[in-house]
Every structure is written in C-alpha cells, then in structure tokens.
Design a protein that fits this description.
Blueprint lengths: L6 H27 L9 H24 L17 H20 L15 H27 L7 E4 L2 E4 H12 L3 H4 L4 H25 L3 H34 L28 E6 L13 H5 L7 E2 L12 E7 L3 E9 L19 E7 L7 E6 L5 E6 L9 E2 L8 E7 L11 E9 H4 L14 E10 L2 E4 L2 E4 L12 E4 L15 E6 L14 H23 L6 H4 L18 E5 L4 E7 L2 E6 L6
Parallel strand pairs: 3-5, 3-17
Antiparallel strand pairs: 1-2, 4-16, 5-6, 6-12, 7-8, 7-13, 8-9, 9-10, 11-12, 13-16, 13-17, 14-15, 18-19, 19-20
EC number: 3.4.24.-
GO biological process, one term: carbohydrate catabolic process
Organism: Eiseniibacteriota bacterium
Length: 607
C-alpha cells in the first residue's frame, strides 16, 4: 500500500486540494474582478460566476494531472441508471425538513447575496453555473481523489455513507460558512449549512453509487431551485398560521421596543438646524478654470468645513472640504476646495455614476418643497453627471438621467498630479457656473433670484478608501466579506442619515444684491420653515404608520406613538390648528397660522 493510500494522509491531501482550488480561484477572480467597471450593474453576479467557473477549471486541470488524462474516475461519464424522481423527492424532503423549522427563527440580518440577482441571473448563475461547478470540485475532484477510502464510513440500515461522501459533504457545508461572516441572518445561515451538508450526502451517495457526476449536478441544481420555490411556500405557510392572530388584532407576542414604536421609515437622527450662507453678487467677471483666484472669489466667504453626512456624532472627515458661492444675472457660481493627498479619477463618460469615483456634488431645490430638484456631480477629470429628480427616491422618484444643464461651465484644477500614486498631492478645486435659465425650468420662483430670496442647497463629497496596488488606486475591501468598503460621505449641511435625498435637511442659501458684506447682513429664517418642519414630522409618522397598517391615518393620536420623544414639544398649543385628511392611500396635513395655511401630502411635497 503506497503512502498516499494511507487514510489520514489521503484525507489531509484531499482537504489541501480543496484549499488550493479555493485560494487559486479566489486570487485569479479578484484580479479579474478588479478590472470589471464599478458601474456595471451586474458586477456582483459576474464576479461570482467567474469565481465558480475558475474553481471548475482549476479542478479539471488537477483531475487531468491526478488521473493522467483520464477523467472517468472523477465522475465524467454517464454511469449507472438511477431514478430521477426518487432523487428529486429526496432533495425536496431535505430542503423542507431544514427550511420550515428555521423559518420561525429568521431575524433582521441580511439575506443571501443572491437575493439581489435577477431571475435570469439566478437561473444562469446559481441553478446552472454554481450547481455544475461546485459539483465538479466537491464530487468530482475531492470525492474522486478520496475514492480509495470508500470502504470506511457509517451505515444506516441498507444505506451506507462512505468516508469520501461524508468528508465532501462537510467540506461543501464549510464552503458556505463565509455567508455567516458576511452578516446574513443567523437562522438563515445555519439552515444553509445544514441543508448543504444534507445535499452533500445525497449528491455524494448518488455520485458514488452511479459512478457519475450527473445525478450530483441534478441534485444540486434541484436544491437551488427548490430553495427559491420553498421561500414562497413557507411565506404562505406562515401567513396561514398567522391569519387567526391577524383577525383578532395582530400577531400575538408583538411588542414595541423600549422608548416607542419600532421605526421603519428612515428619518434624520439630528436636530433640525440647517447650515446657512449669504451669497453675494460677483463683483467682477469669473473665468471658470477651477483656480478660484479672481478678486470676486477673494471677497466671498468660505462655508464651514464639511462634516460627516450623519452629523457631529460621527468622526470628522479625514480631509478638509469647503465651498464658496457667488451669483450674477447669468449664473449661480459654486467654488469648492477639496484637500486630497492622492487625487484619482477613472470615469470619463458623461452621466456615468460619478460617485463610483471620489467626487463633489451639488444639490439645488429652488422652492424648498423637496420635489423637482437638481443634482450635479463631478470628478477630478471634470466628468459630469447631472440629473433632475421629480421626487426624492423615498417618494418614488424618478431621477431623469437624460436631463442636462445646457450651458453649464465647469473648471477643475489639481494641486498635484492626477492618477499618479508615486507622489503626494495637496488638493483639487472645482468651479461651476450654473445658468439661471436652466435652473428656472422647475424653480417655481424667479431665477435669477430677487435680493433676499432663499433656496435650499447642499453639497456632498464622496471619498473612497484606497490602497496602491501595482501602481494603481484600488478601493479597499473588507477583509471578512471581500466586498468594497463603504464610501465616506462628507457634506456641508448634515443630513442625519446616509441619504442626500432628504432635501428638507439641506442648507439655506440667501441671495443678496450686493457685492460685499454689510453690517447687519444675516440670514432671515422665515417662520414658515418652523411650521413646515412640524408638518414634516407628521409625514414621517404617517409613513411609519402606513408600513405597519398599510393605510394612512387621519388621527394624530394614532400617529404620536411613532414620534421621537424628543420632538413632543412640536405638538403643543402653538401648532394645535392642524388637520389631517386621509383616504387610507393618501393624506394631506394642513397647519394654519396667522391666516397662512401650510400643507404636506403623502408624496412629501410641502406648499
């Protein structure tokens, strides 16, 4: 008996073979994945499929070496006959036995990464590619290599699971442990580990007794298909169980967390205190080159330094960002300075998703009703993405990507060298001249503005953590999940949540028809903003109420449990003259004061 026929040595070698396949395939797929554009909508699916195909390719190469060109011993043959119906019933039974009990324990963790795939991507990537490639590795390479050990195992009556079958089932289950590390729901993760082990036993048993990979691939594909179908079946099953409770006032055992009703609808976590800026007329012509070196810019004041998008409770930005603003009868001017030790940009196509690069962004809502507003983004190459939002995404959007700012002027200046990792840069600055004749399209007010007019404006900077690999800037990946680390979002006026599309939190820019600051110049914050903020709280409460009850309420008493306790004072006698009108699917809230009536509806628009 040769050295590699000894059970412990062959077992260890088989496990090492599996590790080699995973590491080699993972390394190559990371290199390939790094060259896939971030803007590609199906990058996650493509990267996953490439990894699976690489695993199969590496495994086949190893099988050719180990089998000296003969793949038959690794299951590449038709094999003995088997009952497909019996095989499918076994797989279905295993899925049901595992999934139904665990479905009662599903929590709030993330779902499986494949939940983000389209149906076609699911069919090609999971049902076909993954099922085939993983079986080539497990039941092909590893089980084929361990085949000399099949006399050892565990018997259950007439069923005998050999050591190679059990080992490959355990390895196959272990392949899915990273899903737990990636943060999916714990119960879901455990159910996947158990179901993959059972699937491994079934696939391995049929592979060993037929001599072919075909039944193993069929079993694997069937398990993936049944998994999707069972999600629907289990959902209906649980709904039927819950119907009696729902009929008599809700699901038994539900209780709100301490401090109030569970919050569903995202809303700002900071006190409403938007930043403000007085924008003066440009005293002299401006050359839009990104330098900001004209005398008119020298007279303009900088905004406060940017902060984290969620507010002061979060760490301060690593690099300074600040803005100046000016205006004349033709343009609204914005000049920004962004400290940056390594300036890079890759996107060159207009209307690409620019925030996949480090970028600077401008948001403008002329009338402050949170609808029909403008967004403008630019990277250090000067590549532009401009779009028009009919409504915020939370209210259904849409974003009109085809909309362009005709006559827009942009200049970018780099203090350093662009896309050169070999040196250290200082900063980059960007200068915009945004034509009033475009901004007035949906301003619902005069543009250019009158002296004293106020517009809602905000600015954002997206900053990715990068490392230098092979002379290129590469986004840092999470060592546990392998996914790109989330970007930093730094803003002028904090949003209180990671979402720029809450225009009610944007800063206030007041235009004055003078070139320099005069004594007594200050932001005049109209009382209207205070009342509109009260209406906004009712809007948040209605959204939360709807998510729980599937209808809007016309009773403030029903809504108040959804109000942050720190905001209770907003509903004292000063704001008592309010009225909520709801049809269940729509609502309008009015608040009257001093003969003026303010409104907000289910779309979030205020007027």
């Amino acid at each position: 008996m040769g050295l590699f026929n000894a059970s412990p040595i062959r077992m260890i070698t088989g496990i090492i073979l599996a590790i080699i396949v995973f590491i080699l395939s993972g390394s190559i797929s990371q290199i390939i994945g790094g060259r896939i554009p971030e803007t590609l909508s199906y990058k996650e699916w493509l990267s996953t499929s490439i990894f699976q195909l690489l695993m199969a390719t590496v495994s086949i190469l190893l099988m050719l070496i180990l089998g000296r060109g003969n793949l038959r011993r690794f299951g590449f043959c038709v094999g003995m006959r088997f009952s497909i119906v019996k095989l499918l019933l076994l797989v279905l039974a295993a899925e049901i036995v595992v999934m139904i009990p665990f479905s009662f324990f599903l929590g709030d963790g993330e779902g499986h990464f494949a939940d983000e795939f389209t149906f076609l991507q699911m069919v090609i990537g999971i049902w076909i590619i993954a099922s085939t490639c993983e079986e080539v590795v497990m039941r092909g390479l590893i089980q084929g290599y361990l085949d000399p050990l099949k006399k050892h195992g565990i018997g259950f009556g007439r069923i005998f699971f050999s050591l190679p079958v059990i080992t490959c089932a355990l390895l196959f289950s272990a392949m899915h442990v990273p899903l737990l590390i990636m943060g999916i729901d714990t119960a879901l993760g455990i159910s996947i580990l158990i179901s993959t082990f059972l699937l491994g036993l079934i696939a391995g048993y049929y592979r060993e007794n037929t001599g072919s990979l075909i039944p193993a691939i069929i079993a694997h594909s069937a398990a993936n298909i049944f998994g999707v179908g069972l999600e629907w079946f289990i959902g209906m099953f649980l709904l039927v169980l819950c119907l009696p409770g729902l009929a008599f006032g809700g699901i038994s055992g539900y209780s709100a967390p301490a401090g109030g009703v569970e919050e569903f609808f995202p809303q700002p976590s900071i006190v409403y205190n938007p930043e403000h800026y007085i924008c003066y007329r440009a005293a002299s012509p401006l050359t839009i080159d990104g330098l900001l070196d004209e005398s008119a810019w020298a007279q303009a004041e900088w905004t406060k330094d940017f902060v984290d998008i969620e507010g002061a409770a979060k760490p301060a930005p690593r690099f300074r960002t600040r803005v100046k603003m000016l205006w004349n009868d033709e343009y609204f001017y914005v000049g920004a300075e962004l400290e940056e030790p390594h300036i890079w940009a890759k996107l060159t196509d207009r209307d690409a998703v620019i925030f996949y690069d480090n970028d600077f962004e401008v948001f403008i809502d002329p009338d402050g009703d949170t609808h029909q507003y403008y967004e403008l983004e630019v990277n250090a190459l000067g590549t532009v993405w401009d779009l028009f939002l009919v409504q915020p995404y939370r209210d259904g959007g849409p974003a009109v990507n085809a909309w362009d700012i005709q006559g827009l002027l942009i200049g970018v200046h780099v203090e350093g060298t662009l896309n050169n990792p070999k040196d250290t840069d200082t900063s980059w600055s960007v200068e915009f001249a945004i034509p009033w004749n475009v901004l007035k399209e949906s301003a619902h007010k005069e543009a250019p503005p009158h002296s004293g007019d106020q517009w809602r404006v905000n600015f954002s900077r997206v900053e990715w953590k990068t490392e230098i690999i092979d002379g290129d800037y590469i986004k840092v990946k999470d060592s546990k999940t392998g996914k790109t680390m989330p970007e930093d979002n730094w803003v002028w006026s904090p949003q209180g949540l990671i979402n720029m599309h809450y225009p009610e939190m944007w800063g206030i820019v007041q235009f004055l028809d003078q070139t320099v600051r005069a004594p007594g110049d200050k932001i005049c914050q109209p009382e209207a903003w205070e009342y509109i903020w009260v209406l906004r709280q009712i809007y948040y409460m209605e959204k939360n109420y709807y998510l729980r009850h599937r209808e809007y309420s016309n009773s403030l008493d029903e809504l108040l449990p959804y109000l942050n306790s720190t905001l209770k004072s907003l509903f004292d006698e000063k704001y008592a003259n309010r009225k909520i009108t709801s049809t269940g699917e729509t609502f309008v809230v009015t608040l009257e004061t001093g003969g003026v009536i303010y409104h907000i509806d289910q779309t979030g628009r205020t007027w």
